[in-house]
Each structure stands twice: as structure tokens, then as C-alpha cells.
Amino acid sequence: MADPTPPTFLAATLLHHSTPPPATRPHVTLTFAQSLDAKIAGAQGRQLILSGKQSMVMTHWLRTLHDAILVGINTALNDDPQLNEPPHHLPRPVVVDARLRLPVTCKLLRNFQGKTGRRPWVLCAASLNSAFLERKSALEAAGARVIEIPLQSDEQPEGRLPVPSILHGLRERGVNSLMVEGGARIIASFLAESVVDALIVTVAPVLVGEAGVGYQYPTSLSENGDVLPKFKAIHTETLGQDTVMSFASIPW
Length: 252
Ligand SMILES: NC(=O)C1=CN([C@@H]2O[C@H](COP(=O)(O)OP(=O)(O)OC[C@H]3O[C@@H](n4cnc5c(N)ncnc54)[C@H](OP(=O)(O)O)[C@@H]3O)[C@@H](O)[C@H]2O)C=CC1
Ligand SMILES: Nc1nc(O)c(N)c(N[C@@H]2O[C@H](COP(=O)(O)O)[C@@H](O)[C@H]2O)n1
Description:
With about 250 residues, this protein is of the alpha/beta class. It is built from seven helices and nine strands. The chain has a nine-stranded mixed sheet with strand order 5-4-3-2-6-1-7-9-8, with helices on both faces. A hairpin with a 2-residue loop joins strand 8 (about 230-240) and strand 9. The radius of gyration is 18 Å and the shape is globular. The structure holds NADPH dihydro-nicotinamide-adenine-dinucleotide phosphate (NDP) and the ligand Nc1nc(O)c(N)c(N[C@@H]2O[C@H](COP(=O)(O)O)[C@@H](O)[C@H]2O)n1. NADPH dihydro-nicotinamide-adenine-dinucleotide phosphate binds near residues 32, 33, 74 and 78. Belongs to the HTP reductase family. Pfam families: RibD_C (PF01872).
């Protein structure tokens, strides 16, 4: 990163980091880049580099300001991300991967082996299935820490780990600030649980088209009594061709 310090609006957006997080979860920042037509990836989840150079630098600074960075397994599979920014503070990479589909050859594990990334934590559901246990052993042998997240009830959709349990599991392991990068299903799940303290959205001046991947906020107006979940605008900044908007949550 060429700039010696983070963009100043990040400090204003993350002011709450100066106080301890709640006992049950870390401070949560949700951030992603989207097109003008609200897509975050191409058809079939193909990775799109939507952020221009300057807004990507902003995202990389944001990574250094959090204890851990979380992505869903589809993002890990499609993008094979690194989620780090050496030589700056290396956040803990966390992959939400109920069925342990993360390949042992992924960059997160290669970076850990090469000492350019921290040990990845892979969050999964408990299972006694022999193929699952084999995958678990292989991931641990490659350096991952596999953490079982308790399911809350039989109502949990198959393959979904409950967001409150994810957050509790991270908080009790010392994560005080968490940056959530996506993808679409993870964005929807975190918004649905109203656990996002800060939201930073990069809008790139491009149109992806209807085959692209977008996120859906899952609660309909009638279900929540016509009370729309709201965020307070903190700052808008033009970075290169992109518009970066930051928001803070407003308690319901
Ligand atoms: N533009 C941007 O800023 C970004 C774009 N992306 C893009 O997003 C795309 C992937 O999005 P998407 O396909 O929605 O996948 P996600 O990366 O959101 O992963 C979703 C998967 O995670 C697992 N999972 C477990 N628990 C939960 C939970 N509580 N909520 C949601 N998912 C859970 C499920 O798989 P399982 O059942 O196997 O556990 C689920 O299918 C990628 O193509 C990537 O390029 C990603 C990040 C940022
Ligand atoms: N900020 C931002 N802008 C984009 O255009 C993106 N596609 C993403 N994607 C996220 O960054 C990860 C890949 O980056 P690294 O390999 O870790 O440098 C990707 O997995 C998404 O989480 N972000």
C-alpha cells in the first residue's frame, strides 16, 4: 500500500472499536464491492474485480484494522482469496464451511505454510460422517484449525451455520473485531441477524447484468412490521472511479 496511513474516514466509521465489543460477539464490519446494478460477482459466481486500484487499497487498509476476516465457502472456492496485506498486521482468515469443502491446496493454507498468512480457521458443523472426518484430518494436517459451531435448532437450513453461534465462537476465541467480505449468502445472513455495526460499500461504475450474483435481504416488509432496517450514513468518498459509502447501524 503506497499511502502510509489508512483513509481518514475509516477511523470515523470504526469509532466504536475504541470500546469493547459486546460479550457475545465481536464488532462486525460488513464490506463488499458492487456494480451499479447491485451485483458482486459474475455469472455462476465468477470473480469480478469491481474495485478500482484506490478503493482496493482502502479495502486492504480495512483488513489491517480488524482481528479477523470472514468469507463463505463459495467465495473461498471461487476466488481462492488471500485475505492478507503483508507486511501490515495480518488478520485471522475465517472460512464458513459447514461441510468442509475447502481444498487443502488453497492460498490461505499455502500462505500459512509459507508464513505470509495466519493459520486459517475453518468453521463447520459437527459430523461423524467418515468422509467429513477424513477431510477434517486433511485440513488440520495442512495447518487449518477446524472449529465446530453448534447448531441452534432443527430449523437451521441445511448447510447454514447460525450467525450468532459463529460470532460467539469467534468472540470466545479472542476475536474483538471481524470484517465480513461476503459472498452474497453470507452478506444476506449477517444483515438478517442485525449484527452489522459498520457497513462499507464500494460502488463501481459498471453494469454486470442479470446473470450476475447479487445479495438479497431476506426479511420482507410485512414480516418485520414495515420497519426497515436502517443505517446512518457516515461518509461518502470518491476513490478513483468508485464511490465508497460508509454507514453505522442504528439500533431498532
Ligand atoms: N464483490 C465483492 O466484494 C465480493 C464478491 N464475492 C463473490 O461472492 C461469490 C460467492 O457468493 P455466494 O455464492 O453467495 O457464497 P458465499 O461465499 O456467501 O458462501 C455461502 C456458503 O457458505 C456456507 N454457509 C454456512 N453457513 C452459512 C450462513 N449462515 N449463511 C450463509 N452461508 C453459509 C454455505 O455452504 P455450505 O453448505 O457448503 O457450508 C453457503 O452456500 C463469489 O463468486 C465471490 O466472487 C465475495 C466476496 C466479496
Ligand atoms: N473490495 C473488493 N472489491 C472487489 O472488486 C472484489 N472482487 C472483492 N472481493 C473480495 O476480495 C477477495 C480477494 O482478494 P485477495 O485475493 O484476498 O486479495 C475475494 O475473495 C473477496 O472476498 N473485494
